[in-house]
């Protein structure tokens, strides 16, 4: 049984879309007619493989035991739908609850698909379920959707399936995704006030330059008075904004596009990430954010039964800074050569001393996963303090910038007026 996406007309003549399960297109059309829907188009939602992977996918459909490497090769080409953190958290929590209640994996997936309100989520879940019904394990079926389920997620699912504790592992994974979502929401909420201040600054300056300055410039022209350099500068900017505002927007758009394309080059992105690590406050925020994510991911993977080397490889991929990612890959290499984790971390100066100490304690006591998760929580608290400090500095700086810009414009306007008053 596979998943099909459809477009159909309801009784009122309106076009409706959705996803439904069926054995064939004909059966799906019959199901739609029983629901008083007139089918317009019915298509299988399974991603089509590329030409180079046709033989691999044919073997995948016939056998129930396929290596993760082959499955991921197909997934890397198929792309697929990307889940938001909220969608992934809700899906994981629902799937964990149903599996722990005693339902089979395919029954749990079907139930989650029925409860989903988003068609893209429902479509992915039904595709995963159809692959499970064909004989694949859950982790292998998820590997065909790498944008929805990342490496860490699939590694934990595979570990849960191998150990026979898929439900508890999914519960732990749901808690991890919820924590990540909570952290992102806190950062976004903290950035609201500075963003509002910045928007207010831009609005006030634009109003002064477009409405007030042109009126005052007419007064100065009638007075036939020599204007100060600052006033001439402000009037020139005002005239430019009035007549060539589209040039400014086009220039900003080109700069943004150029910057994004510049960052797509690995060498340029590495230079930018290295520059971020040299800024006083930004440096600590970037390091704490990446290393806490690294420690939390590694601790969670080890706690779920994933081997240390595989866990290190996956954990290095969750780092968003390329410089720090290189350091984490060095750690993986040293551990692979026989070194201990805490010594490998200590040799890379970017990892906080607390993380190194917790790793050393965990290796001695056999509680490495617990110690890493404890270190991650401490680093997350430190990160919150760093962000609070950065925002406490950003807010007054934004106010000073706004006051400086408005003050400069007012000074440029009032200086000729005072000169005219003195002449009178």
Task: Give a verbal description of the structure.
The chain is mainly α. It is 75% helix and 5% strand. It contains 18 helices and 3 strands. A 3-stranded antiparallel β-sheet has the order 2-1-3. A hairpin with a 5-residue loop joins strand 1 and strand 2. Helix 4 (85-100) runs antiparallel to helix 9 and helix 9 packs parallel to helix 18. It starts with a strand and ends with a helix. The model is unreliable at 47-78 (pLDDT under 50).
Total number of helical segments?
A: 18
Structural class: mainly alpha
Rounded radius of gyration (Å) = 29 Å
Tell me the major beta sheet. Answer: 3 strands, antiparallel
Helical fraction equals over 70%
Strand order of the largest sheet: 2-1-3
Alpha-carbon distance between the termini? 91 Å
Shape: flat
Uncertain ranges: 47-78
Tally the beta strands: 3
Can you give me a brief rundown of this structure?
This protein is 75% helix and 5% strand. With 424 residues, it is mainly alpha-helical.
């Amino acid at each position: 049984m596979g998943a099909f996406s459809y477009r159909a007309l309801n009784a009122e003549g309106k076009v409706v879309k959705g996803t439904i399960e069926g054995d064939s297109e004909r059966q799906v059309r019959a199901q739609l007619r029983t629901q008083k829907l007139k089918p317009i188009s019915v298509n299988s939602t399974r991603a089509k493989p590329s030409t180079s992977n046709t033989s691999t996918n044919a073997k995948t459909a016939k056998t129930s035991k396929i290596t993760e490497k082959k499955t991921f090769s197909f997934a890397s080409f198929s792309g697929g739908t990307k889940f938001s953190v909220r969608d992934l958290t809700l899906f994981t929590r629902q799937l964990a609850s149903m599996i722990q209640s005693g339902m089979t994996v395919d029954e749990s997936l079907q139930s989650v698909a029925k409860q989903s309100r988003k068609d893209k989520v429902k479509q992915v879940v039904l595709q995963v379920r159809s692959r499970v019904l064909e004989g694949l394990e859950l982790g292998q079926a998820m590997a065909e959707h790498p944008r929805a389920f990342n490496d860490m997620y699939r590694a934990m699912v595979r570990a849960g399936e191998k150990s026979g504790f898929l439900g508890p592992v999914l519960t732990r994974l749901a808690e991890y995704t919820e924590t990540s979502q909570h952290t992102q929401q806190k950062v976004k909420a903290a950035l609201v006030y500075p963003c509002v201040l910045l928007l207010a600054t831009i609005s006030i300056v634009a109003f002064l330059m477009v409405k007030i300055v042109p009126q005052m410039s007419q007064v100065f022209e009638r007075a036939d008075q020599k204007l100060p350099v600052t006033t001439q500068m402000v009037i020139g900017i005002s005239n430019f904004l009035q007549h060539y505002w589209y040039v400014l927007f086009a220039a900003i758009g080109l700069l943004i596009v150029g910057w994004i394309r510049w960052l797509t080059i690995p060498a340029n992105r590495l230079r930018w990430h290295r520059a971020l690590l040299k800024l006083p406050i930004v440096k600590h925020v970037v390091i704490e954010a990446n290393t806490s994510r690294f420690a939390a991911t590694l601790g969670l993977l080890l706690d779920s039964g994933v081997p240390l080397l595989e866990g290190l490889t996956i954990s290095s991929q969750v780092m968003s800074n390329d410089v720090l990612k290189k350091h984490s890959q060095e750690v993986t290499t040293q551990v692979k050569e026989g070194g201990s984790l805490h010594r490998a971390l200590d040799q890379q100066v970017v990892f906080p001393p607390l993380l190194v100490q917790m790793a050393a304690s965990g290796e001695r006591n056999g509680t490495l996963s617990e110690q890493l998760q404890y270190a991650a929580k401490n680093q997350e608290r430190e990160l919150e303090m760093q962000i609070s400090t950065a925002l406490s500095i950003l807010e007054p700086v934004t106010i000073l910038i706004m006051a400086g810009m408005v003050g400069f414009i007012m000074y440029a306007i009032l200086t000729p007026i005072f000169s005219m008053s003195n002449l009178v």
